[in-house]
Write a structure and sequence with these properties.
elongated, single chain, eight-stranded mixed β-sheet, alpha/beta, binds 2-acetamido-2-deoxy-beta-D-glucopyranose
């Protein structure tokens, strides 16, 4: 008589079938997780890592449906065609330490001058914060900030694009889980006008701003009064007269601006730009006051000043 410990023929067969099925499942599972490919290229590998990051992002459920072109430690270019906001291509830099779940990193939004307008976002790397993170990847700026540098076409002005830039800023903040209390705004020339306009349209988004050789509508000063501002302008600027920033600074002081700093630079450098030959000022004397706001020791002070400000988000 067969003892109770022995398996029946039918039991043995069914155990055998289960074992084989589990084996097959284990073999198939690994490649399936890698998008069904047995051998994945480094590019695909990166894509998978980004998808994994997106899944681990606690902020929003629809995150998994979003593209995340940003890569920690790199400045990536997103063309207008690929962009989430129709009008704007952009560069996005994320510090090496960035992950979607680490302590949120501050975001610096930079609006370029007319010369960098176009359809190749990598042209925006020529100057300002995107140049700094590109050229000094180990530097303090590259380690402290995520940098969003949108690019407009030559046929538009930054001060007409406030909503587009704001939408892109919100998109990047959310997608990369950046620090909403430390979003900073800066821009040069046409981008300086853009910073004044965007700051006035959405003062609640930014913790501080640095508008350079631009200007704006003094009537918006009341809206700007709670936004700390450090303006720069060359006294000898032949492209945008210094009075343009003077007016904004005056208006903000009158409106009771919470913090209004102004570097009115007596002998600001120019910048060679053949595009300005027609206007008779190919070297744009006095226009490049941003050199004293973004680079070297003076720049260091500006970045530190920005980081010293944090927006208080009221919990209504
Ligand atoms: C900004 O985003 C809002 C909400 O998604 C949308 O309704 C609006 O059309 C966008 N504005 C621009 C100018 O892109």
């Amino acid at each position: 008589m067969p003892c109770c410990h022995e398996l029946s023929w039918a039991q043995r067969v069914s155990f055998g079938i289960v074992t084989v099925l589990v084996g097959i499942a284990l073999l198939v599972r690994q490649p399936l997780r890698n998008n069904g490919a047995f051998f994945i290229s480094p590019g695909e590998d990166r894509k998978i890592q980004q998808e994994t990051l997106a899944y681990s992002n606690p902020l929003s459920a629809d995150q998994t449906l979003r593209r995340m072109p940003g890569v920690a430690g790199k400045q990536v270019a997103v063309t207008r065609k690929e962009s989430e906001v129709e009008e704007l291509g952009y560069l996005l830099y994320l510090p090496t330490s960035w992950t979607s779940t680490s302590t949120p990193i501050p975001l610096l939004v930079f609006l370029h001058g007319q010369g960098e307008s176009g359809s190749d976002p990598s042209e925006v790397k020529l100057q300002g914060p995107p140049a700094v993170v590109e050229n000094e990847p180990e530097g303090r700026v590259a380690q402290s900030f995520a940098v969003l540098s949108p690019q407009k076409t030559p046929y538009t002005n930054w001060h007409d694009l406030s909503e587009e830039v704001h939408n892109l800023t919100k998109h990047v903040l959310q997608t990369y889980s950046l620090d909403r209390q430390r979003v900073y705004l800066t821009g040069v020339s046409n981008g300086g006008f853009g910073a004044w306009a965007l700051g006035a349209a959405h003062p609640e988004t930014f913790a501080a701003m640095v508008p350079i050789c631009g200007g704006g509508d003094p009537d918006t000063a009341a809206r700007l009064k709670d936004l700390p501002v450090w303006a720069f302008h060359g006294e000898n600027d032949v492209v945008i007269p210094v009075e343009s920033s003077d007016k904004m600074v005056e208006a903000m002081k009158k409106a009771g601006g919470v913090e209004v700093k102004y570097s009115r630079i007596p002998d600001a450098p120019g910048r060679d730009d053949p595009a300005w030959s027609e206007a008779g000022i190919p070297t744009m004397p006095g226009h490049a006051s941003w050199v004293l706001a973004y680079y070297g020791d003076p720049g260091e002070q500006v970045y530190q000043w920005l980081l010293s400000h944090k927006r208080i988000i009221s919990k209504k």
